[in-house]
Write a structure and sequence with these properties.
Elements lengths: L1 E7 L15 H4 L3 H8 L2 E6 L9 H8 L10 H8 L9 E12 L5 E5 L8 H10 L2 E4 L2 E7 L5 E6 L30 H23 L16 E8 L7 H5 L3 E5 L2 H10 L2 E4 L6 H14 L5 E6 L1 H8 L2 H12 L3 H9 L4 E6 L17 E6 L22 E4 L2 H9 L38
Parallel strand pairs: 1-11, 1-12, 2-14, 9-10, 9-11
Antiparallel strand pairs: 2-13, 3-4, 3-7, 3-8, 5-6, 6-7, 12-13
Length: 445
């Protein structure tokens, strides 16, 4: 049986009076998603625990059955996905250009964030090149521009990822001084990493101010004059998804962080482009998953609901969800005709409020599972509220993967172990007992 996990990034939301006190998902027209809910089992899901606000990469990591202790950091995942060269001992940090102002107490505060800075990639590369290499106290810094206003900072030497962030994200907030984390297991390295990174950022500010009068610039007031950092990480030994769960996995997604996640967890990865038609994009990705002859666990991803939540309105988010729903017709047809043996799992990684100060919020998201050995329940709508009446209840973290194993008849009886490693799934290949007589053995009388 093939598992197709379709993840609608940032799908969950809050209710809004102007939508009749519905969420954008509940207000959207979703006949295909509703039908998948009606022929399957439903519930709610949170990758950690309700109320915890998760970034996408961490939610995915937990969803795939891993723990926060194993998480290598967003910086590492972005670096791996964007093919930035780095050594296993180096610390990788997300970075981008911004513009800061100075208040009466000489504190720098955020005036323009990542997406507010004007200029295309070529224009901003001039600024990135000015601060691309630095060394202080035997700690090296290499800055790699990976997008229009995105970069990875690789830090080498006796360094630690256990440091805080400088980027406050919200405008008018003070830029944060980087600090070593209080409970780090490597306090000396963390303290040195934080100290030298603060020096590097100050050096960057000094270098960038000299570019204010650059020829062809849109105006000094709009030029970036500071580099901010966040979400550091470092390589960790992580068990591959296939070994952990017994599937041959693949991922279809856009964005470097998902390619990095696939690289670190052992998924075969297909990177796709997002068009102006999210329904068409979804239909093509699902069809690719259905037709795939080489993998039995395929993760299909779209960023569309999350992106519209950050940039527009609840009404616009409902429109995007309605468009995405049209892309589920092929999957629904397969489930109803049973032409192929498929377990379909449709959910989200987190909630993204489309009218709030929070970047992501901590509400649960809807979950529908159809096909396989699934108990059909009375739920007939795919949304955050209807799902609470479903037979799956509320699942968290690795619960999702265990339910997938159970629903595909792959789950191992708890306590039974075939081979040297205890596994959640029943392995197909394990050392077999043979009837060969062992050398040097003899029968006792």
């Amino acid at each position: 049986m093939k598992v197709i996990l379709v993840l609608l990034d940032g799908l969950g939301d809050r209710t809004y009076a102007r939508l009749g006190h519905k969420t954008p998902l509940a207000a959207a027209r979703t006949p295909s998603l509703d039908r998948i809910a009606a022929i399957g089992a439903n519930g709610t899901y949170h990758a950690l625990s309700p109320g915890r606000c998760l970034p996408s990469e961490m939610a995915h990591f937990l969803m795939f059955g891993y723990t926060l202790a194993d998480f290598p950091g967003r910086g590492l995942l972005e670096a791996a996905g964007e093919k930035v060269p780095f050594a296993d001992s180096e610390v990788l940090v997300l970075a981008h250009l911004c513009r800061v102002g100075i208040d009466s107490n000489q504190r720098a505060f955020l005036e323009q964030g990542r997406d507010d800075i004007v200029g295309d990639r070529d224009f901003l590369s001039r600024f990135y090149k000015q601060i691309s290499a630095y060394e202080y106290k035997n700690i090296g810094f290499r800055l790699h521009q990976t997008g229009r206003n995105d970069a990875i900072l690789a830090i080498s030497g006796h360094v630690s990822p256990d440091i805080s962030d400088s980027d406050p994200v919200l405008r008018k907030s003070p830029i944060a001084r980087i600090m070593p984390l209080a409970r780090t297991k490597e306090p000396d390295r963390a303290a040195k990493t934080a100290d030298t990174l603060n020096h590097y950022l100050a050096w960057c500010a000094d270098r960038l101010k000299d570019l204010d009068a650059a020829p062809g610039a849109p105006g000094p007031a709009l030029n970036p004059n500071f580099l901010v950092t966040q979400r550091s990480g470092r390589k960790k030994p992580i068990a591959g998804f296939g070994d952990k769960w017994g599937f041959s996995p693949a991922m279809i997604a856009s964005g470097g962080v998902y390619q990095g996640l696939a690289t670190e967890l052992g998924f075969d990865f297909t990177r796709v482009r997002n068009s102006a038609n999210p329904g068409k994009d979804m239909a093509e990705r699902i069809q690719t998953a259905i037709d795939d002859p080489d993998h039995d666990f395929i993760h299909v991803h779209t960023k569309a609901p999350d992106q519209v939540s950050h940039r527009e309105s609840p009404e616009r988010k409902a429109d995007v969800i309605s468009a995405l729903d049209t892309g589920f017709a092929g999957l629904l047809n397969m489930l109803e005709t049973k032409e192929k043996d498929i377990l379909a799992v449709v959910t989200a990684d987190h909630s993204t409020p489309s009218d709030a100060k929070l970047i992501h919020s901590g509400e649960t998201v809807p979950l529908a599972m159809a096909g396989g050995a699934i108990r059909k329940d009375p739920v007939h709508r795919f949304d955050e509220i209807a799902a609470t009446a479903g037979s799956l209840g509320q699942l968290r973290g690795a619960d999702l993967m265990h339910m997938i194993l159970n629903s595909t008849d792959r789950a191992m009886l708890q306590g039974l172990c075939l081979g040297a490693h205890k596994r959640a799934y029943r392995p197909e290949n394990y050392p077999a007992f043979t009837m060969k007589k062992q050398k040097g053995s003899r029968q006792l009388s």
